[in-house]
Amino acid sequence: MTLKLGVPSKGRLMDKTFDWFAEHGVQIARTGSDREYSGRVEGVEGIELVLLSAGEIPRELSAGRIHLGVTGSDLVQERIADWENRVQALEPMGFGYADLIIAVPRCWADVDTLDDLDAAAAAFRAAHGHRLRIATKYHRLVREFLREAGVADYQLVDSQGATEGTVKNLTAEAIADITSTGETLRANHLKILSDGLIHRSQATLFKSRSAPCDDACRASFRALSDRLGLGS
Amino acid sequence: MASKAQTLAQAERLFAFCRNSGAQPVQTAVLQPAETLLDLYGEDIRARAYVTSDPLRGEQMLRPDFTVPVVQMHMDDGGDPARYTYMGEVFRRQERDPNRPNEYIQVGYELFGGDDPAAADAEVFALFSEMLSPFGLRAATGDIGLLLAAVQGLATTDKRKAALTRHIWRPRRFRALLERFGGRSPVPESRKRLLADLDRHGVQAVLDAAGPEIGLRSRDDVAARLAALQADAAEPPISVAQVELLEDILSLRETSLNALAHLRDIAVDMPAIAPALDRMQARLDALAAQGIDVDLLDFEASYGRTTMEYYDGFVFGFYAEGRPDLPPVASGGRYDALTRILGRGRAVPAVGGVVRPELVLTLTEETAQ
Questions:
Q1: Measuring CA to CA, which residue among B192, B140, B189, B85 is closest to residue B302?
Q2: CA-to-CA distance for A206 and A194, rounded, in angstroms?
Q3: Residues that bind L-histidine, according to the entry (chain B) (predicted)?
Q4: Where are the domains of chain A?
Q5: Residue A92 forms beta bridges with which residues?
Q6: DSSP-assigned states of every residue in A127-182
Q7: Domains in chain B with CATH codes
Q8: Does residue B369 have a pLDDT over 80?
Q9: Do B224 and A123 touch (CB under 8 A)?
Q10: What residue in B sits closest to A134 (Cα-Cα)?
C-alpha cells in the first residue's frame, strides 16, 4: 500500500509546499502537462502524490482517503469537527501565514475589545430589532471563539468572498476573516479588535488518524519522517 | 443497550404516568422555524441543533426540545390552568463527542397558569420524583429567580444590573462583569485613553476622528454608547460588601432548609431578595405537602446557570449518583419569561420538565441485576 500525500494543486501554496519538501531533501514535482494533475515524489519510496484543492485536503484527511496532507490550520480547524481526534498536526511549515480576526468599523470609537462588542451587540439589538450580524466563512471557529468569550446577541451571516465589503453594503455590521497585512481592512475602514485574534493560521503538514496503513505504508511514513526530521 | 422498541415501550409507560396525572397529551411538529429558536438562544444553538432549509419556509430546525413549540401552542389557545404531556424525539447535533446520542426520546410534563406558583413548582417536581422513585436518584434544585433578585438588589445603576442579568446564564462573562463593576479588574488601557479623549475633546470630536461612518450601526448608536461609557466611568464601583454578598449567594450549596436560613441572614443586608425567599419558603412548604423530604433536598444557588437559558425561577434535575457518566435522567424548571417573549407581551406562569426514557430503562436494568 502506498502512502498518499495530499498537496495543494496550484498557486503559491503549491510552490511553497514543493520548496519546503525540497529543503528537507524530498523532491516533489508535477508531471505531464501544466494542466494535468499528477506528480511524483523522489527521495522516499512508496509515496503517491495526490494533488488537491487546499480546501478539500481537510475532508480527505478526515475521511482517511489520504494519509498526509498539507493545508492551512484554519481550514482543518474550521472544517473538521473534533479535529484533534481525526488528524494530527505533524509540523508547522512556516509559510501561508494568515490571522483569522474579528474586525469592526473604525468609526466604532466605543469598541476595542470583545467585551465592547458584546455590549454594543446588546444595544444594537435593542435599537435595530435584530442581532448584530458578523459576516464570515469560518462559522465554526468564530462561533466557538465567541461562545468562549461569552459574546451574545450576534448572528453569523455567510460570506464566501469580499467579506470586507459587507459592512459598507449593509449586509453585516462586523466581519470575521483572514488577514495577513491588514491592508484590505484599512482600505475598507475596518479595525481589528485588540483581543479579536481567533486563530493564527499557517500551512501545516497533517496526518490522518483514520487512513488504513499496512506495513509497507508505515515503512514509507517512517522513512519520510526521518528525512523530514519530524519529531526530532 | 436498550433497543429502540424497548425505549419506546418505556416512553409509553412514562407518557401514561403523565396522562394519569391529569395532563392532556399534545404533539408538535418535528421541523420548527429556525428564526424563533435562534432569536431565543442565539447563534450557539446552531452548534447543538440541526438546521436545514426549506425552499419556501426558509431555515428550519429539527426540534431540539419541546418547550418552545408547546409554549407557542398554549399561547395561541390554551386554557388556564393547563397541563400538557408529550412524547417524541428531540435532535441534538454533536460536534465533540460521537458517543452522545444525536436523537433521543423525551417525555415531558408542562403546567401553565394557575394562581399559586409555589404549588405548581411542587406539583411538577413531585410528579418526576414519584415517577423516578424506584431508582434512588439524587435531586438537585436551584432558583434562578433568586439570582435575578440578588442582581436587582445591588446598589448600582440599572445599566449595570441589566448587563449582569443578561449574562446570568454565562457564568464566566458574568464573573468578568462583576469584577469590572466591582473595580477589581483593571480598566483596559484603550478604555482609559478613550475616556480621557472624551473628557478632553467631547463625543463629537472623538467620533469625527474615528473614521467615516459605514454600516448600519449609526453614529448616533456609537455616540449613545460613548455617553453610557462616560456615565458608567463616573459611577462608584459596586462595594466590596455587596460583591461578597452576591458571591456568597452564588456559591451556596446546602440542604434546602439550611440554605434558606443562610439566605435569610444575607437578606438582612440585601433586603431585595426577601420576596424571592418568601417564594422559596412557600415552595418548600408546598413540596413538603406533596410528601417531599425537604430536610434532605439539596439546594445549589448556581444550579441551572449553564443549561438552557430560558429558566428564570425554580430549576431541578434528577441524577443517578452511581453513574456520573449519565446526563440527568430528568430536568426542568420555571420559565415565565419565555412565555412573555413567545406570547408577544402576554405572559403566563409556566413550569415543566422532561425525562429521558432510555436512561430510565438503563437504570431499571441495573436495579434488576
A1: B140
A2: 30
A3: 65-67, 92, 106, 110, 305, 310-311
A4: 3-96+203-228, 98-201
A5: A204
A6: HHSSPEEEEES-HHHHHHHHHHHT--SEEEEE-SS-GGGTTTTTS-SEEEEEESSS
A7: 4-137+320-368 (3.30.930.10), 157-239 (no CATH)
A8: no
A9: yes
A10: B43
**Cβ-Cβ contacts under 8 Å for B75 (sequence gap 6 or more):** B339, B342, B343, B346, B348
- Partner A contacted by B326 (CB < 8 A): no
Q: What is the pLDDT of residues B133-157, one digit of tens each?
A: 999 999 999 999 999 999 999 999 9
Q: CB of A28 within 8 Å of any CB in chain B?
A: no
- Compute the distance between CA of residue B58 and CA of residue B1 in angstroms, rounded to an integer: 38
pTM of the model: 0.91
CA neighbor of B229 nearest in space, from A107, A112, A189: A112
pLDDT at A232 exceeding the cut of 60: no
Classified by CATH at the fold level, domain A98-201 comes out as D-Maltodextrin-Binding Protein; domain 2 (3.40.190)
A140: which chain B residues are within 8 Å (Cβ-Cβ)? 47, 95
Query: Which pLDDT value is given to residue A31?
Result: 78
Which of A107, A113, A123 faces B214 most closely, judged by CB atoms?
Answer: A107
Give the architecture (CATH level 2) of A3-96+203-228: 3-Layer(aba) Sandwich (3.40)
Contacts of B279 by beta carbon, 8 Å cutoff, 6+ apart: B117, B118, B145
